[in-house]
Write a structure and sequence with these properties.
CATH superfamily of the domain at 119-326 in chain B: MetI-like
Structural class of chain A: mainly alpha
Chains: A mainly alpha (337), B mainly alpha (332), C alpha+beta (581)
Strand order of the largest sheet of chain B: 1-2
Number of helices of chain B: 11
Order of helices and strands of chain B: HHHEEHHHHHHHH
Order of helices and strands of chain A: HHHHEHEEEHHHHHHHHH
Largest sheet of chain A: 2 strands, antiparallel
Radius of gyration of chain B: 24 Å
Structural class of chain B: mainly alpha
Oligomer: heterotrimer
Number of helices of chain A: 14
Largest sheet of chain B: 2 strands, antiparallel
Strand content of chain A: under 5%
Helix content of chain B: over 70%
CATH architecture of the domain at 119-326 in chain B: Orthogonal Bundle
CATH class of the largest domain in chain A: Mainly Alpha
Number of strands of chain B: 2
Largest interface: A-B, 58 and 56 residues
Radius of gyration of chain A: 25 Å
CATH topology of the domain at 119-326 in chain B: MetI-like fold
Amino acid sequence: MFAYIVRRAVIGVALLIVMSLVTFILFFSGAFDPARNACGKVCSPAQIEQTSKALGYDKPILTQWGSFLAGIVVGRDYPLDKKVREENPDLVTHCAAPCLGYSMVNTDTVNNVLKSAIPISVSIALVAFVFWIIGGLLFGIIAAMTKGSFLDRGIVGLSLIFYAFPTFVVGSLLLRFVAIKWQIFALPVYVPLTQSPGLWFTNLILPAVTLALFYMAAYARMSRAFIIEASTEDYVRTAKAKGVKKVPLMFKHTLRAALTPLVTMAGLDLAILLGGAIITEDVFGFHGLGLLAVTSNSRQDLPTIVGIVLLLSTFVIIANIVVDILYAYIDPRVRLD
Amino acid sequence: MAISPTETEQRSEVGVVIAGETTAAKSPMRLAVDRFRHDKLSMASFVVVALLVIGAILAPILVKLGVLDYSTLHQDLIDNTNGGLPTGAHGGISASHPLGVVPGTGWDVLSRVWLGVSFSLAICLCATVVSVVIGAVLGIMSGYSRGALDWVIGRLVDLTLSFPQTLMLLALSAPIIAFFNSSLHLHGNLANAVYIIVVLGLFGWPSVARLVRGQVLSIREREFIDAARSIGASNSRIYFREILPNVWAPLLVQTTLLLPSYVSAEAALSFLGVGVQAPLPTLGNVLADATTWILGDPLYFWIPAVMIVVIVVSLNLLGDGLRDALDPKSGR
Amino acid sequence: MTTNRRRVAVVGAIAALSVGALAACGGAGGSGGSSSSAAKGTLYYLTQTSAKPEHLDPQRVYIGRDITNLSRLVYRQLVTFPDSADKTAGVTPVPDLATNTGTSSNGAKTWQFTLKDGVKWQDGKAITCDDLKYGASRVFAQSVIPGGPNYLVAYLNIPTNKDGSSIYAGPYDKSAANQAGQAAFDKAVTCNGNTITYDFKKPWPDFPLAIAALHMMDPYRQDKDQGDKSNYSVFSDGPYELQGTWNQNTGGTFVRNPNYDAATDSTTVRKALPNKIVFQVTSDAETIADRLIADTGNDKNAVTDRSVPSSRFSQLNSDSVKSRLTSVSSPYIDYLQMNMKRLSNPLVRQALYEATSPQAWIDAGGGSKAYLPAHSIVNPVVHGYQPNPAFNAPLSGDAAKAKQLLQQAGVKTPYPINFMYEKTTTADKQAAALKSSWEQAGFKVTLTGIDADNYYSTIQKPSNNGDLYWAGWGADWPSAITVTPPLFDGRINLTKTSSQNDYGQYNSPAFNKLVDEAQNASTLDAQTTALQKADAQLGKDYAYVPLENQVFNLLHGSNVTNYLQTPSSNGYPDLGGINVK
């Protein structure tokens, strides 16, 4: 098991290095013009060139990538020009390892920019995750156990409808009606957990519900389908024939098989959401990684975009490893090899 | 879909249970069709989807014939002193505009939603086909084979899945569409549509591949695969004759989740400003515009919103129905 | 996602609307009624995420809203604009840190200002002439703190390199190579006691206007300067100071500055009434409008810079909301620029102009509440505005005349054109509306919507395949010298790799000559006359088509009193006089 984890971790790191290269080529190889954007409104070509030099965009792409990777290991100092740094120690920004670069737009290291956004995205994702897993599994199990009944049909029908509403529509409806028109909840504003756990949670309800409704609907449908499928497995039918009661049959036998594919999905979905729910954060104005991505995109803040891409990729890669281990744990037929 | 002998054996047992003795002689496909036709919900969704498809095919023809008109301005039908709201009651419903007109431009809502559904379905179907074909082939190969192939495909899946999809779709749209313009001579909305198809398709396949691989991992350990191997069946025979029929059901579930989810994704991208742009309508760009009018012109908002729900729900129900019919183990 | 974010920054001035129903809202002034001037409570200032301030550094800030907000709260200038709703007084500089509005000599090439006694920084130290000089020097440090207005680089009497860049690289570069530059700067900007003297290469008759409208000449304390790291630091010499730090994503709070002495200031500039001003960066313009329409809780004490989106106009008609709405025309003009290289036939350009229906564009974007028609690229409140004589077609276009002109031009119809614009949900509808008007006249239109982040960099590429471009512009200070020359002077704009602000690659010797005339004029009147002729020349060439002048429809909460949007605040709420109950 330990050897497996180490091997996966090594592959994961290699994957991240490849990803950083792909991302670098995609964003810094000329399709965008980062220096022009950082330079300002009335900007001569000479000034663009100057800006490009100050930010290191004049170097070959592989050199830029190399210093970026080096920065992750040992950290970097900004501005890049050593001469300017030595002459003006006050101007120096140290970006400690693992340094993801410096965002001219935010005038801060990418690490600091991400640091302020992560708790918000993680909060939304975790609260939504709890909502959707509890809701999704609960409704899925109920529907599967009462298959064919009105209850089952009601759950399936409702989950289909909620699954069908685009997130931005649900979010806009909740925001316009629940928060603004009817004022059932105050307009959601992120409050850090450390400041007030109560306010943290109540302010997260609307964005989390917006996110969770979609996933809850999908998970209810999927868990229902998987449970029904698992209940036709031989060993479940055997257990049933041996007289195991309905509820223990569900939790001891059927669910275990049904959960296997769900674990894969839940793990990956959560990992992706930890990296920010772009639409939900955009609708509610929560400054998590998703909204940061949107604003960085519209301001062509390439270092931040690259930082977000790599951070999110790290989440996903770690989740993949965890999911595979869980997979083996839940389904003994799968071997880690 | 060809069914291997082992499969038929397994299935007939269940088939008898469900459909009674008289059907024992029928082919598995015939059985599936029968089962499907006996399910009212499946048939209802089938009818709705069929209507949607016929409507989608008819829409461009009706535009050519001048029955649908999605882009003529009707400035006389809007009140330009009041934000451009339609002048008539209920979003400007009239005999010539049965679902009202769009605020600001006076475009006909019926035409825009109808043609929008048509374009959205076409774009998303293309993207789905791209994803499912790549995902199924790579997923089966990956799950079954041992060694290098599995490893390479696995890393490719990891790499693709590791990219934050929405962010990449958003950030890459400008340079890729610029590339379409300059190198492939695709312009305007054609470039926008191709972008949506290509990126949704290419970012969407790993979820299919992963799911298929997960299924194959446990199928691989089953007796009938061992049996096939022991009688010397070739790899491609095992892939497509032994394994594919067994992953068909989850694959179909995944496909039915994928097509409507792409319809939603197209809408979400429109909300973020990526994709086909007016005056050409897609369900996404009509809905994105309409969402700003939730309070000001509710009818204009609810028409595309209900339409997207109808599409996604009916496609999902159809998929469920097919799944239940094709995979009798889940029998009703 | 319906905000038109423009690259253009600032502005000079705004005008009160006096048309139709809007007149009820009463000029640039607003509601409020009682002029209670007792200091009170907390004022909230709401803005949206996509419009959050990008710089608080005085030498870098370049957005009209931020410039005035900072002027009223924390950054005093040598001269500034008073918070007057009057069209003329509001854009006439008054002394602020300086004892008068400056004295010029040597044909407006030399300007001199003397600091008032008793003006202090927030730590109690006196503001010195060296602080002013240091502030000016930061403008040259484009490689360390890029982004701000850099007019000084072109005007200050410092030699340039062959490529046109200044030999002075700003105060951070202490290398030997920069010593000549530093010496040149020290010669061009000199201190004598509390008197500072600027020495320019060419006449700058409107210099006081420029420095009242921008913060580029503000003093800066060298010991507080951390270059780029200071982007969001505020070291105040005004009535308020920043409490703690500024958070880009959520905003910041300004509280009273104990070292501010109101005796050195004028109440026509800063009444500084609320005890506390909280800037809130929040989601979007729709939500801000919905909150202010609802008018509950802290939102009763709120003002905003976000114009009400047209989808909310129907909710503005009730008395309780209408009384809290103020409508003023914005300092921007939106226009279409023709590509002179691709539309080389003047008759085709004229036909395109005649076919254009600004009315269709206006209606699709929200109608007469959202826009006023424009008759020149110069905003009506800029000094020396006159409607451009070339643009007299009906507002909804003249398709018949356009057809006839196309025929006269002898081109094959339908004539294909590619229209490029900055993509938003609203702009898509507006562009589609224009497409209809052009196609009626015999054009075949391709619409190319480009997202905001890439729009300007795309249309600045000389090789782009657009025939017609949407663009928006506001004057940097209320003089046409910051409108037509930066947009149409081919000599400063056109290079091999970029058309810069001259997207249509217009380059006319006749126009350039008039620009030279304006730039070398030593009086404002002579400058204005030359610029009027220059605009007429642009009209004659159909280099651009004016579309509209956006209207700011701003709501405020019911507890806000003395509410004011003035020319000097660029049409935004003027924090100089606003109070809360």
